[in-house]
Amino acid sequence: MNKGQKLLRKAIKIIPGGNQLLSKRSEMFLPGVWPAYYKKAKGCKVWDLNNKMYYDFAGMGVTSCVLGYSNDSLNKSLIKGLKNGSMCTLNATEEVDLANELLKIHKWSGMAKFCKSGGEACMVAIRIARAYTKKDNIAFCGYHGWHDWYLATNMSNKKNLDKQLLPGLKTKGVSSTFKNTIKPFMYNDIDSLKKIFKNKNNNIGIIIMEPTRGVKPKHNFLKQVKSIAKKNNAILIFDEITSGFKDNYGGIHLKLKVNPDMAIFGKSIGNGYPISAIIGKKKIMEVAQDTFISSTMWTDRLGFIAANETLKRLKKNKIHKIISYYGNIIKNGWIKYATKHKIDISISGLDTILYLKFNYKNNAEIVTFFTQEMLKRGFLAGSQVATSSAYNKNIINKYLKEVDQVFGKIKFFLEKGKFPLKGEIKHSTFKRLTG
Once rounded to an integer, what is the mean pLDDT over residues 251-265? Predict the structure, then answer.
């Protein structure tokens, strides 16, 4: 057993689940074998507690580190900010700088507000939108965090989140006051949204959704959603925590040419440092003054510094083009070697966040084997790759060379009928707008 798994066994006894994030649990990758903890991360390289180095092709910090780990440029600015004080009675000027840049990028918006995490940003956006519309109920599509308002949809039907997030999610601890107020609709299925609004007493004041993730919008889906929102005086919120600043500079809604009333950002805007943002039309955002939304740590200077420096680098170096290019190399490599070894796969996602699926009933078993074999070869890998500018063609070619070898093994054991796993099969991961 590696040192990471040994520490995890101790952690589970004192931390519920062993860590703070479902997406980082070993069970989601390679139960009992995954390194679990890191000692150092630089670029796209990660060193575990056994001092073994891996290339990270398993999400790059849950899709957040588009510039790579411990980026020198960010480090320089953050160290300077740290020396000048990260917290103070007064406010940090970098907050205003970040607001100006986000509003400059998104011309349709008029005000910005900040917090530290994606879930918080969703909750803040919901609070502001509710205050504006004076309507409590919500229609949603996609993943929007762990808060009561979101999980409460499973109170009216325990399977509501099965196709949005994860099957079997329980609602223990969630306030029953939200029951029957949160309505899910399916991506690219406009009828599922229309059905919600057919009931004139639905009191829906908010439509919140990821504009795209696993699949692209079809048949003017986003424009139809916007039309329904406008017709029913509902606020349209695009959750761009994951999609923002990946395939283009700004929210992907700019690329899709559909502007919402509000948008939420996180992850990429700070290259993994704690910062998230809510932007929106001024008349809506000003209503934040009519309710109470406040937190000490939202004023921390380092998040603003990280975001300003990250956006500067993303814009100057056209990072979205680089990581999209890398994504297409990986996608074409998967297709090439799947064809070579006669394996049936499907690929979904953005150019910068790719999802690999083996089209067999035992997909989870095959992905677990893929992770196991890639780990032996020095790669953190699974069914998702989030590209980073810390990659280069040489590193990607190394990855694809090993993919070729592992795909060959997968073909062999597919014919055998059983895969030699060292541990259990991985658990289910998030479902992301796959239709």
Answer: 98
Q: To the nearest 5 percent, what fractions of the chain are helix, strand and coil?
A: 45, 15, 40
What pLDDT is attached to residue 430?
66
Count of beta carbons in the 10 Å neighbourhood of residue 160: 19
* Claim to verify: residue 208 and residue 338 sit in the same structural domain: no
> What confidence tens digit (pLDDT) does each residue in 156-185 have?
899 999 888 778 888 999 999 888 999 999
Mean pLDDT over 59-83 rounds to 97
Residues 156 and 300 in one domain: yes
For the chain, give the percent of residues with pLDDT over 70: 98
Pairing of strands 137-141, 182-184: parallel
**Cβ(84)–Cβ(55) below 8 Å:** no
pLDDT of 167? 81
Residue 96 confidence (pLDDT) above 70:
yes
Tokens for 190? Answer: 């406009």
Burial of 290: CB neighbours in 10 Å, binned 0-12, 13-18, 19+:
exposed
Residue 200 has pLDDT above 80, yes or no: no
* Cα–Cα distance, 61 to 189 (Å, whole number): 31
Kindly list the distances between the CA atom of residue 431 and the CA atoms of 143, 187, 190, 362, in Å, as whole numbers in the listed order. 8, 12, 19, 17
Give pLDDT tens digits for 288-322.
Answer: 999 999 999 999 999 999 999 999 999 999 999 99
Question: Pick the residue with more confidence: 435 or 381?
Answer: 381
Q: How far is CA 179 from CA 174, 186, 194, in A?
A: 9, 20, 20
Please give the Cα distance from 393 to 242 (Å, whole number). 24
Q: In whole angstroms, what is the distance from residue 429 CA to residue 166 CA?
A: 7
CB 120, CB 149: distance < 8 Å: no
Q: How far apart are CA 237 and CA 144, in angstroms?
A: 11
Q: Are residues 342 and 247 in the same domain?
A: no
According to DSSP, residue 93 is labeled T
Sheet-wide strand order for 38-42: 38-42, 45-48, 53-57, 379-381
- Based on the fold, state whether residues 290 and 337 are members of the same structural domain: no
The total of structural domains in the chain comes to: 2
Question: What is the rounded CA–CA span in Å between residue 228 and residue 25?
Answer: 39
Helices and strands per DSSP (H, E), number in the chain: 14, 14
* 354 CB burial (10 A radius; 0-12, 13-18, 19+): buried
Structure tokens at 390: 């810390």
Q: What is the mean pLDDT of the chain?
A: 95
295 and 220 co-located in one domain:
yes
